Fold:
Amino acid sequence: MDAQGRGRDEGIDPADQWVLNPDTGDYELRLTPSSGRSSVPAGTSEARTPGPRRRPKPEAAPSGDRASVPSQRGGRRAAGGGRGGRDEGRKAGSRAAAPATGRRKAKPGKSRKKKALVWTGGVLAFLLVGTGTAGYLVYQHFNGNITAVSTDGAGTGGFSKDRAINVLVIGTDKRTGEGNEGYGDAGSVGHADTNILFHVSKDRTNATALSIPRDLITDIPNCPTTLENGEKKDIPATSGDRFNTSLGQSDRTPSCTMRTVTELTGLEVDHFMVADFNAVKSLTTAVGGVDVCLAKDIDDKDSHLKLSKGEHTLEGEQALAFLRTRHSVGFGSDLSRIEIQQQFLSSLMRKLKSNDTLTSPTKMWTLAEAATKALTVDDKIADINQLRKLGMELASVDPKNITFTTVPVLDNPDDKATVILDKSKAPQVFSMMRGDVSFTAVEKQEKAAAKAKNDAKLKGAMADAADVRVDVYNGGAPPGSAQSALDWLQNEEGVLKSTNKANAPEDVKKTQLVYAPNQADQARRLADMMGLSASALKPTTTDAGAMDPMVLTLGPDFTEAGSPLSAPQKAPDDIQRVEADKAVCAK
Structure:
């Protein structure tokens, strides 16, 4: 990939030959022509042909920061692209670079830092997805680094611009790789040890990074799986297992972890990325270290981390030890470790979005090289162009609008080493994420105004639960939803005049309640119980008979009885959270 290998440059770092173009936000290969040779790599469509050389006609200079795009005389810049996935971008071609034409007033444009941010894209955990590729050879080089695993149909099939994005980042404790033998459990096939579901809102204004404790007792669904040898295997569902056994155990692959996350949260996962111990070490080294702050000394004999109180910059082996430590922080539990991991990842995101990183071609090349070698991704994004597009989708989310939080859990009364779901808080967190509600209160004022208008429709007298009469249909909800809703209404809420009517004549896009004008008080009570929004209430024009029931049709937005269907606008007061733009000292 470097110029020296083609006899072009002497003693120049290949990464320093990449220059940021402020018009496109891409780094582009710039090789100074020598001895009358073209700068286009051999094998491209514009390779040099015999014949007399002609000096190219001057072109208009690009707008923006001229210093970031050096001129070339008689040379061309290579730009690469490609197609892949559902959101296909236009494939870039080569075009002549503008020669110097004297001083000219630069057109107004975005700053280099802002352009670079758009190019780089969002970064979560250990991934650098915004790896801009210029030139066919670079495209091939990075593509050759990528390791992919099948989703086995567990995901959505790919992200798109017109809806929210969910990326599952899995940190596995598999001990393979140089220098990892001393961590114990050397023969382990690896578990889903660290799990973060990164949810980006549909309008890209906010994001939530949800940590899922490895020791959470949950149900693991049936998992159709493609094994390493290509064999297909159907791994049966289990109940009452630790979440971390959704990967590695019984031949389970990351696609099974995807299914487990969807079953737990009600959020469909678009993509997954897996990082092992070596990925942590190589990526933190590539970025030049991650800044952390300690509120007290740490001396953890299990993770081999020994640090004094205060600020430190960690990379490689020391960064891995920090992410693995737990006995010297918080309460010494895995939940305490999750909290310092979130603080570390917040710092990593700030480092990756800093001007110091974004405007350095050498650092960006090193990071792209490390990321594509270190991470295992799903087969839907096993292409550098798809990774780049995903990164650009995440780019507009400001760190101040990104919140790290953890699935609310309680100590397991049957086993003090594990935790169980806190059913009084977890459904609220999941509902907020499904509804794109920001945990950092950055929702636009017009959204708040629209909610207030909807809330006004729900105000009024409410009937007693015993007086609510309703027929329940399944109109696109998961199988068994009508019966589970009926059981909940009768046993938990006292709505005894309710009936399971099985499947609806037609599916609905969202759960809806049809009622007559004289049933408005019943509708308000049922809406209050189930968390229905005003838009879910569908009044008819004529009154109903005294014995006529309302009609409740459960749609795809229904996940489980008792889980509110309209997202709450405020997170529970005491849930754990870390805001990505704030530095916090580990305690």
Notes: Residues 1-16, 31-134, 180-185 have pLDDT under 50 and may be disordered. The longest strand covers residues 192-200. The two ends are 45 Å apart (CA to CA).
